[in-house]
Amino acid sequence: MSTPLFQRRRGRLQFVSIALVASPFALFGALAHADCTTTGQTTVCDTAAPNPATSTVGTGNVAAEDNRTVTVQNGSTLAVGDTSAIAVRDNANITVQTGGTVSANAVSNSGFYGTGGNAIDFRNNSTLTVQQGAQVLANGTQLSGEAVNPEGTGNTIVNDGLIKSAHGAAIWFQNTSGGNTVINNATGTIQTDVANGNVMGASGNGSVDFTNRGKVIGNLIFAGGNDALHFYTGSSVSGSISGGGGANVITLNGTDSATLGTITNFQTLQKQDSGTWTLSKTLASMGVTNAEVQQGTLILQGNNGTYTGTMQVDAGGTLQGDALSVTKAVTNNGLVRFQQDADGSYAGQIVGAGALEKTGTGTLTLGAGNTYSGGTTITQGTLAIGADSALGGATGALTFNGGTLQLTGNVDVAATRAIDITNANGTIDTQGFTSTVSQGISGVGALTKAGGGTLVLAGDNTYQGGTTVAAGTLQLGNGGTSGSILGNVVDNGTLTFNRSDVFTFGGTVSGTGGITQAGTGTTVLTANNAIQGDTLVASGALAIGDATHTSAALGVSATNAPQSLRPMAGSSGSNVQIAANATLGGYGTVNGAVTNNGTVAVADALAAFANSGSGSLTINGSLNNAGTVQVGGAGVGNKLVVNGNYVGNGGVLAINTKLGTDNSPTDKLVISGGTASGNTAVRVTNAGGAGARTTGDGIEVVSAINGATTQANAFALANRVVAGPYEYTLQRGGSASADSWYLRTLQTVTEGTGGAGTGTTQPALRQEVSLYTAIPSLTLLYGRALLDTLHERVGEESNQATAPAGTSPVLRTGWARVIAQKGSRMSDGNGIYGNQGPAFSYDFGGVQFGADVYQRQREDGSHDHAGGYFATGRIAADVTHADGADAGRDTVNANTVGLYWTHFGPSGWYLDGVVQGTRYDADASPHGVNGLKTHALGYAASLEAGYPIALSQQWRVEPQAQLVYQRAAFADANDGAADVRFNSVNSMLGRLGVRVSKRWGESPERQHTAWLRANVWHEFRGETGTQMSSPDGGFVPFTSQLPSTTLELTGGLTAQVAKNGVFYASLGYQVSADRRLHGVNGKAGVRWGW
């Protein structure tokens, strides 16, 4: 028990309690507050004397102390001795205003709650506010005498001043359950003067919600409750921090930057507000199992590889670290930033709707399997991936903001991933691999391709900063119709175009690298490209300039090179290699040597420029041609200029020429200052020329200028060049230049070429003149073969089956035969240049079917036969030109119908008349040029008579005479080089012959006849005419004439093999009187009656 002692000091009543035995009120001050004024439940301590006040405010744990309001005003001091300065109970509101001080100097007093002489005591649901500049001090030596001691729960301490304890904790929570709140604002300090002491403690498992915006001097160690610690940037804790037991939460707040020191035993970490907090320790060492970045930035340090808890980044939050510090599992709905200053690999997984950013100068390698969908930004250093999924979900964007994306395999970036380059630019490093970006890349920045592999840009890219190929290959397109970039390219590797359409690239390509055309389409370069490396045209076509960009160039020249490179302009450093089936072309200039195994196409000779008009292509270097130089385009007038040597390696020079007289329009190869060597086949296509005689040098197609020379065998025609009736030849040298090459239609006559005298000149007539001129002669030979003679057509007349006298004239006899002839007609040496026409060797084959439709035998022994026939056959000839060359082959297919009437007199004499009509279809097949097809309708008539004279019963001699007339009219034709007209064919052929025969037989029904006949044939007309168009006075006429007189010797046999069946055959030989026509023929037939 205690005995109160009352005494009066300075007009105020004070209560001093002297401890007797163990009284809790021992040494307490008087219950009356002489220096503080109390009205009801409100106490105000002011600066009025006495100041400081030394009496305790309140009586502690009694109901009377509930709902108390205590205010220590500015400048007022409440300083007590070995007791509590303020001791109230529940729902109290205590304010220590600016400049106010509350202190206790406890030594041994247990206070009103028996918990020590604390400067301020209260129990539940109370609020203590310590304003800026105010102090609450525990100055005594009592270890349990804290500055503030909440005895219960639900209390809030707001400190903007100083709460300090000299020998113990500044704040002690007496409760074993429930919770209390401490808010230490920016100007607030909570301090213990105990070395390594704890500024705050607790007696049990009650929870504390501690907010620190100011200073904590000492350790901050919580007890066993579920505590919450809120740290703001700008705050500090000088000692260690521990959450103690329970499930504790630390929240990092504020708008500035701060670093969190040593901290343990906090299971949940939350980052709030817009500021940045750096954790100096790992999450595992802090005891964290759940981390969440709600706002601002949380920077991790150390190795969090062993962390197995959760990490969540909310929208508006940023988690920053490196490959070691970022946890292995992140749910990212905000931003994960890898600040990677040294190389490192992150093998974790990042999921969620958030984004990822790479900063720092080092290389970060991300593993596969990330699904975050907010996109990836590379701001610094290198981000290395081995799979696209390392960049998160396939719809997440990829932004280059100054960094490098390194591809460690054949990685194709997902086509659904938007890609952007900022003005800080970006780099893609393919190393030794091939990777494809199918979508277009946008943005204002520039792209650099690094590494030795291939980057395929298959989309249409719109980034505006230009492109650099630092190493390896940058390929535009992947074989389709997309794949493009804007702006210029600095190419120090290889720039490859791989598209299937016509693609125009307007940027300038420069640098030490090369260009490859790989696609099946056409790439058109329209700028002045001072590229120093080699160019390979592997497929498709590469065009240097179009019709509106004729100044376009490829390679270094004295005009487009930087000053430092001009000494190497036009050297071998800018060579172009053209592969088989590939094409180099255009209207511009190639600076460097060109090796062509494919095609060089000048101007509109390139298919993509078919409608662009004629032009020129210049090569400032040598041209080695093992392919085709296609100078000829849609029209005529293209020019290829080679300012260097031209070497033909079995290649082709293809040109268009309007074949006519000298100086006709033509495409041209111009060789300036160099030498043409090797061998090149010149293929000439006629550009609408009608053909004409050349009278001077001819048409210049290879021009040697500025001292250029050409070897004698450098060029030769690859094809026959014909127009009108003329053959153009390619010849070196003329009056203007000894080394230029010309097309001419003049030839010098030599022995065996026909025409004028040896050594003179004459037009070079093309072989088709001979070929076409021979056709009408063949129709005459065909008609003669079918008309033939009576005995060869139907056999021996004495074996003819006839209707008996007095019977009806009905069909009783049919016949059929085959005919074969082979012969040759030699020229007179002049060939087509003369009147006899060309030489030819011919063969004829045909079948003929006939029947008597009328027969009558008269009483006097005479009889008549009338019938008709159908025949089909072919005559073909190999024609020889005037110079002895094979001109080609003429083939005439024909179908014939005919009628005949034969009258046999009583003594055996006969008169045989035949008329026939024929449809001729002629096909002339020359060598190396288009042929000609035409047709004709012809008719013929024959009248033959014979008078047999019996020499004995078996032998007879029969003089014969025959007259044959033929006429045919051919349709005009065109063979692509000339119009061809045929004059009407007229022939009047006479024959005189004598036939000797012997007849024998086994019986009257088995009679046989063998015979031998000699004929003299004479052609009274027989000259045929053919005309070919030419500007030289219209159509030029040519003739062919069969020999006028021909001798023939024929032998035959007629055998009656059955009562009504006869077999007959013959074999003959003929030769003309001038011995220029030779021929043999064989015929066999059957006749049957019923």
UniProtKB/TrEMBL annotation:
A cellular component annotation (GO) from this entry: outer membrane
Keyword Metal-binding: no
Residue intervals of the Autotransporter domain: 807-1090
Signal peptide segment: 1-34
UniProt keyword Signal, yes or no: yes
InterPro entries assigned to the protein according to its UniProt record, in alphabetical order: AC_1 (IPR043990), Autotransporte_beta (IPR005546), Autotransporte_beta_dom_sf (IPR036709), Autotransporter_adhesion (IPR051551), Autotransporter_pectin_lyase_C (IPR012332), Autotrns_rpt (IPR013425), OM_autotransptr_brl_dom (IPR006315), Pectin_lyase_fold/virulence (IPR011050)
Pfam families: AC_1, Autotransporter, PATR
Superkingdom in the source lineage: Bacteria
Keywords attached to this entry: Signal
Protein name: Autotransporter outer membrane beta-barrel domain-containing protein
